[in-house]
Amino acid sequence: MASGGEGPADGSPDWADTSIDLSSPGLAKASASMLDSGEDFEVLDEDDDDDLSELPPLEDIGTGRAPPARDDTQAPGSEQAPEEASDVPRAAEEWLDVLGSGLLKKKTLVPGQGVESRPRRGQDVTVRLKAMLEDGSMVEDNPSLSFTLGDCDVMQALDLSVQLLEMGETALITSDAKYCYGPQGRSPDIPPHAALTLEVQLLAAQDAPDLELLRGGEKIQLANRKRERGNFYYQRADYVLAVNSYDLALKTVGSSSKVDFSPEEEAELLEVKVKCLNNLAASQLKLDHYEAALRSCTLVLEHQPENIKALFRKGRCWHSRASTVRPYPSSKRL
């Protein structure tokens, strides 16, 4: 059966008819057991001392396929777009300051096929990549790395710079840690706050596949790849980019389809959707976006009314909003 479209914004909480008793011993026991779940990473570290002062709001996330497998900490859309090509002859171009801040620079080593051959956001690109620390140590050597441009599937230094590469061009990229692996680094080879130098060659660019034409297994694989990228960002406490990646996964799962799926594929797509919505709600809670988290939880409960993670997080949303919206509902349960 073909899949119909549905996104996380389709649901709305029913304040009059739904409620949850957070003090119930059963729910407290169940919420603790969630930490041992093998379903997903879904950590329920519900402490309230996270410093989110420097994180941009969810509304600042880019809507284009501009976020899942990047290793940076910068939200898509929060920086100015890469500079357009200059009229200065290539030989005199030297270093191009991509963002105007001096933190990300590009220099052409081997010219490409012209500005018109540059890839577009949303296309699938393939590059040859070498990444080095400032001391020259090689930390990555990938002869054929493929990702969706603008989806945050790779570190932001690469995602931004490839948009300025011409087909066949080889360029040297120098990037501050902010656009690479940030303050956490990447164990064991990239230390915290490490700047990187990248040598990149653009090998290919093509339009991403039409979601409506993907077979069930292909759609599941793509959605899981975006979800796992969201997990990567969540574990690095980059909740804005995590939200972006989960949204991309949900867009894939919820897209309409012109291909029939088997019952097993339909069930697996639903399972992926529930995982994404639960993790999306967890990220939204970290950003204090309670209304959005409520919508995500409600969508989970439409499919799985007994889903303990959604029940727990929906109750937490109510508790957090109680003082600003209305008296905390004294209910029995959802």
UniProtKB/TrEMBL annotation:
Membrane as UniProt keyword: no
A GO cellular component entry from the record: mitochondrial envelope
Catalytic activity: [protein]-peptidylproline (omega=180) = [protein]-peptidylproline (omega=0)
Residue stretches making up the PPIase FKBP-type domain: 122-206
InterPro entries per record: FKBP4/5/8-like, PPIase_dom_sf, PPIase_FKBP_dom, TPR-like_helical_dom_sf, TPR_rpt
Enzyme class, UniProt record, top EC level: isomerase
Isomerase in keyword set: yes
Record keywords, A-Z: Isomerase, Repeat, Rotamase, TPR repeat
Database matches in SUPFAM superfamilies: FKBP-like, TPR-like
Top-level lineage group: Eukaryota
Molecular function terms from GO: peptidyl-prolyl cis-trans isomerase activity; protein folding chaperone
Biased composition (Acidic residues): 37-53
UniProt-annotated stretches for the region Disordered: 1-89
Gene Ontology biological process terms in this record: negative regulation of apoptotic process
SMART domains: TPR
TM segment ranges: none
PROSITE patterns associated with the record: FKBP_PPIASE (PS50059)
EC number(s) reported in the record: 5.2.1.8
Name of the protein: peptidylprolyl isomerase
Source organism (scientific name): Chelydra serpentina (Snapping turtle)
Organism placement in taxonomy: Eukaryota, Metazoa, Chordata, Craniata, Vertebrata
